[in-house]
């Protein structure tokens, strides 16, 4: 069994606060993306499905509910995430969904050509930049010919009408980049989404499809409450790292965060972010 002490996540994967954040984020993302399979040409051919770095398991559960004939597996390094996800599979009586512990930054304990779909979402602060090439090779190896790889990553933290929210977002992005994640040359964005189609093309995937997902989290929009919680928890968790790196003083961070949360509660708070899904099909049948 893997120990989450070997994790490469920018957050503590065993934190209950992070579990709660991911439960919220997961619902918000799947909704903004138009469901678990958006962008795939069809779902008839999907019998064995794998989700890498599955977090609280929402994507796997949605996929298992939508496709009762398919077996859907999620793997994650965090015991708390996997236990929660398995408990939810049980309460939802989804016997075709299962979750286990696995470190996705190394070789994966699955046979060659065993999956029709490999899905991975929001790994920009999970996989250090030198890990992406071997991770992509593992995805290719595990897919059967004709199977699909589906990657979804946010471009950045988004753009808002609040200078404080934007400044916190910039600090967070810079801290993540300076700690070895993503390929942004200047640390101003997460630096994964813009390369995904190129990576899939280089690996020999065919029928590469790109789909952008806007997330409007303005004060009047439905995702606002989830994103408010997400931002509150995200910045709280990243504060020690950001302060330790000397990007901002402790008291200045607290003032900025208070201002950001106050701004988000204003009627005239407007905000937009984008994620990108890229899907490729492994050649052959
Ligand atoms: C941002 S969350 C993504 C959650 C999920 N994919 C989603 O879209 O809701 C990142 C997840 O990666 C997991 N993780 C971090 N390092 C990992 C590793 N080396 N191997 C497997 N999972 C890891 C964390 O525990 C966390 O659940």
TrEMBL record:
Mind telling me which Pfam families this protein's record contains?
A: Methyltransf_25
Output the InterPro entries linked to this UniProt entry.
Answer: Methyltransf_25, SAM-dependent_MTases_sf
Task: Quote the protein name from its UniProt record.
Answer: Methyltransferase domain-containing protein
Any idea where the Methyltransferase domain is? 49-147
